């Protein structure tokens, strides 16, 4: 069952050293971000060849080195990074979002001496990238809610976002899958949502499930980003900040949500920019209220 997944990994690793493929990725990323002034994707020069990529020089530094010694500016930089590579991807208005598949600090630069934006980010090395359709992003949100709410049923219901093919109908295999989800939630402790999803992916792989490569790649990229965020601003929690961004979207959606509350059949609609239904929002509010006394 793992053959297909290993073939996808092999193809991605092979693509990463194919110069022409990387050049096409660079062009595609440049087009995707062309209207975003906060992100710089180096321009590919037309005299590139099949063996050599010639692109715009970016005067910058590793994002982990940005504003050394200045905690306030590093905190702003951390939030800019999280916006660009996490929330803007998940909540993209595009039907198919694009994301950088290998966002370690050497591939994510702080652009130096930009007169218009001192926090501009340059994304380098597009050998590995992924496409993220809206339906899959909506399911990812449900998976994260399942972890946040410790809701094994919700995780089970949306596991198709992680696994290719039908989930097992055999009672023994289905029970084993339920146990895998239960063990993942029990081991969560203080880990982030993306760390927990990474653990679940590992467990599913060991059980022989064929995983969806693009979502596994996105989750892995988020774990990498979390490490950079911790270095820039140790006080910033990736989960909390993503929830803050989602809450901001929900507030903007309140008039539409109010109408959908009056019209009961639309109560569970996920047609909002946040992709959270009124039922989801209610569940999160109850969770916050129940934990309020502890906080």
Task: Give your account of this protein's structure.
This protein is α+β, with helices and mostly antiparallel strands. The chain contains eleven helices and six strands. The chain has helices at residues 3-16, 19-32, 71-90, 134-148, 152-157, 171-186, 193-206, 213-232, 238-252, 254-262, 278-291, and strands at 39-40, 60-62, 96-100, 108-111, 121-123, 129-133. The strands form two sheets. The protein has a four-stranded mixed sheet, covered by helices on one side. The mean pLDDT is 90.
Radius of gyration: 20 Å
Give the total of beta strands. Answer: 6
- Largest sheet strand order: 1-5-4-2
Shape: globular
As a percent range, the share of helical residues equals: 40-55%
Number of helices: 11
How far is it from the N-terminal to the C-terminal residue, by CA?
Answer: 45 Å
Strand content: 5-15%
Order of helices and strands: HHEEHEEEEHHHHHHHH
Q: Show unreliable segments.
A: none
Give the biggest sheet: 4 strands, mixed
Averaged pLDDT = 90
The helix-and-strand class reads alpha+beta
């Amino acid at each position: 069952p793992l053959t297909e997944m290993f073939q996808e990994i092999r193809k991605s690793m092979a693509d990463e050293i194919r110069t022409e493929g990387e050049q096409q990725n660079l062009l595609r990323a440049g087009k995707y971000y062309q209207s975003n002034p906060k992100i710089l994707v180096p321009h590919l020069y037309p005299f590139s060849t099949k063996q050599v990529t010639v692109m715009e020089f970016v005067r910058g530094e590793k994002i982990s080195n940005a504003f050394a010694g200045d905690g306030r500016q590093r905190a702003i930089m951390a939030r800019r990074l999280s916006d660009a590579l996490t929330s803007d991807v998940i909540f993209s208005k595009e039907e198919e979002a694009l994301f950088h598949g290998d966002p370690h600090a050497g591939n994510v630069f702080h652009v130096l001496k930009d007169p218009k934006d001192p926090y501009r980010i340059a994304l380098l090395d597009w050998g590995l990238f992924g496409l993220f359709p809206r339906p899959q992003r909506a399911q990812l949100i449900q998976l994260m809610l399942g972890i946040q709410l410790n809701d094994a049923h919700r995780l089970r219901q949306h596991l198709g976002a992680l696994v290719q093919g039908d989930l097992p109908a055999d009672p023994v295999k289905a029970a084993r899958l339920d146990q895998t989800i239960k063990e993942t939630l029990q081991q969560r402790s203080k880990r982030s949502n993306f760390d927990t999803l990474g653990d679940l992916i590992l467990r599913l792989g060991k059980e022989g499930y064929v995983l969806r490569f693009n979502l596994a790649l996105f989750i892995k990229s988020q774990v990498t980003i979390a490490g950079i965020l911790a270095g820039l601003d140790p006080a910033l929690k990736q989960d909390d900040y993503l929830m803050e961004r989602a809450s901001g979207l929900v507030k903007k959606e309140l008039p539409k949500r109010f109408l959908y509350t009056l019209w009961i059949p639309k109560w569970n609609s996920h047609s909002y920019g946040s992709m959270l239904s009124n039922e989801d929002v209610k569940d999160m509010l109850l969770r916050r209220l129940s934990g309020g006394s502890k906080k």
